[in-house]
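[#protein-structures] MJ: dropping CCHC-type domain-containing protein here for a structure pass
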Amino acid sequence: MLWQCMIQDYLVQQGLDLALQDEKPSDMKESEWSTIQKKAVSTIRLALSPQIKVTVLKETSPKKLWETLESKFASKTLTNRLMMRMDLYSLKMEEGGSVIDHINKFNEQVSRLLNAGETIKDEEQGLLLLASLPKSFKPFVQSMIAGRTTLRLDEIKVTVLKETSPKKLWETLESKFASKTLTNRLMMRMDLYSLKMEEGGSVIDHINKFNEQVSRLLNAGETIKDEEQWLLLLASLPKSLKPFVQSMIAERTTLRLDEVMTALKESQRMIGGEESSGDSHLLAAVSVEKGRKKKSDQLGRRSQLRDMSTVRCYYCEKLGHTKNGCPEVKEDLQILKEKKGKSKEASFANVITYEDDLL
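AK: finished. structure tokens for CCHC-type domain-containing protein:
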């Protein structure tokens, strides 16, 4: 992984890479070995962000520190992988923003996925980068994929970085590509990647549009895995549904497209009418919170034994607990209960339930 490579490079440059060995070299003095160990620990810590550093302050052995970091941050769990996919699919460049900064952010997101063992084809990366550009770049995007049989990420990046405005990009590409015939497959992929639900829009209408886009691709002979479909659907939702998205992904081992659609429709049904837009944030968490209680008895003993210091709550985003024991969830539930009355509470428990495999 990238972070492992960087830290190893730091140690090699300082002549401290021996510190990661299990035992002291036979020809080295104990005092010299101790000094190398201390310097290695210091070097590794200097390469860490403050948020990560505080979780490993007790480690005094470079070997143990290295192993701790690997166990904490080399995770390839489904939740981490899905959240990174979501970050990539949701990445958007703001109008008037820096193209260079945006490409750097894009590269960072892709690198995180590749380091986690994910495979992202070059063509998919290119399409995702194009789909992340603002509306003013639409002529550039259309020209970039017009009449193409192949699409390379490096070519897109070079072309984008050469020009400073959408107009110049358009003029450059008009002279570069004579053909204006759109490649249906690429355009349909672009339509799917760019699909976004507006704030306050109808969930049913959005799901219908999503299904229509997917059907067009499938009918054209494209293959879209179920996991990719529901990730794209979640990434297409507005910011107000972010708690719902996080709740759907958090701590999952499996998830299906039909599950996501059913939960999304049910969530929309329950927040429709009397509930305010602010309540919808809590409802997404409540739907998962209620479902997980069914397994709390089975998993309670394991949860007591687990070190929770590095576990992050997907509701309040603080370390030390999951959503099951989040004090903010309990407070918000009480507020909502007082606001809506006890009659509402029973209906929340009927929302789609999810299994909790983290604890």
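MJ: nice. Residues 176-182, 273-299, 301-305, 342-359 have pLDDT under 50 and may be disordered.
AK: one more thing. The radius of gyration is 25 Å.
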